Amino acid sequence: MPEPRSYSTEAIVIRKTKLGEADTILTFFTLDRGKIQGFARSLRKPRSKLAGHLELLTHSQVSFVRGKNLDTITGSQTINSFLPLKNDLFLTSCGLYVAELINQFTAEHQENLPLFKLTLDTLHRLADEDNHELVLRAFELHLLESTGYRPQLRQCVACHRSLEPITNYFSPVAGGLLCPACGPTQHFARPVTVNAQKVMRLLQGGDFAPVARLKLGAELAAEIEDTLGEYIKYLLEREVKSAAWLETLKEQKSSFRP
Ligand SMILES: [Zn+2]
To answer: CA-to-CA distance for 166 and 116, rounded, in angstroms?
Structure first.
């Protein structure tokens, strides 16, 4: 049976690319089709009826009609526009960071329902909670998990011994923690304090509610951010071969119009 000519799905706008005078290509992360692209004719004309429903980070029900190369967007109805994220520059950049990581870590047409739910939960938490740093770190750890890069935080990735509650080492290349015997022998392995290990394990655990109440000092927050950030950067450079992804993020930021 041929596939129907049109379809509709729940989608989050994760990227917009200008095309010609007034058209736009949008990248969506969807409930049941993974990452997909759609063509929006005249989206940048002032009287576009669709534009308000297709802003970056907006969660919408979007309709498409199949095209030869690219499917065309025929309708869109906002489910949640995440206004708090669009009215605050810092929250905007947090939301765009989430969108950019989803874009970089996913391939087109690969359904990933847990990742769709994680993305929505994360946008809700950014809008509703005060602990934005922890929301982002939890997002990173669960993103890594659902894309197959879960970092090993319980035992040494080299000798497989259980880790002692002492300073251990994190290796982006090995994909997890190393004990003090194995750590110093690995290139680019960085020491990680006991508290940073504890928080990362808690965040990896699942439920966000108990974690949301944690108050991290600036130094500890920075240590966790750097450790996970180095791992993510390493994976993206190796797997996606996109060393310029931070540049992309900047581009998206400057093209964002709340
Ligand atoms: Zn070891």
So the answer is: 36
* Residue 130 CA neighbour count, 13 Å, CB half: 4
pLDDT tens, residue order, the chain (258 aa): 677 899 999 999 999 999 999 999 999 999 999 999 999 999 989 888 898 999 999 999 999 999 998 999 999 999 999 999 999 999 999 999 999 999 999 989 999 999 999 999 999 999 998 899 999 999 999 999 999 999 999 999 999 999 999 999 999 999 999 999 999 988 889 999 999 999 999 999 878 888 888 899 999 999 999 999 999 999 988 765 444 554 455 556 555 544
CA of 153 to the centre of ligand 1 (A): 12
Query: How many other β-carbons are positioned within 10 Å of the β-carbon of residue 94?
Result: 23
* Three-class secondary structure assignment of 99-160: HHHHHHHCCECCCCHHHHHHHHHHHHHHHHCCCHHHHHHHHHHHHHHHCCCCCECCECCCCC
**How close is the Cα of 37 to the center of ligand 1, in Å?**
44
Q: How far is the CA of 204 from the centre of ligand 1 (A)?
A: 21
CA of 197 to the centre of ligand 1 (A): 15
**Confidence (pTM):** 0.89
How far apart are the CA of 194 and the centre of ligand 1, in A?
16
Tokens of 10: 């729940």
Residue 148 CA to its chain's centroid (Å):
14
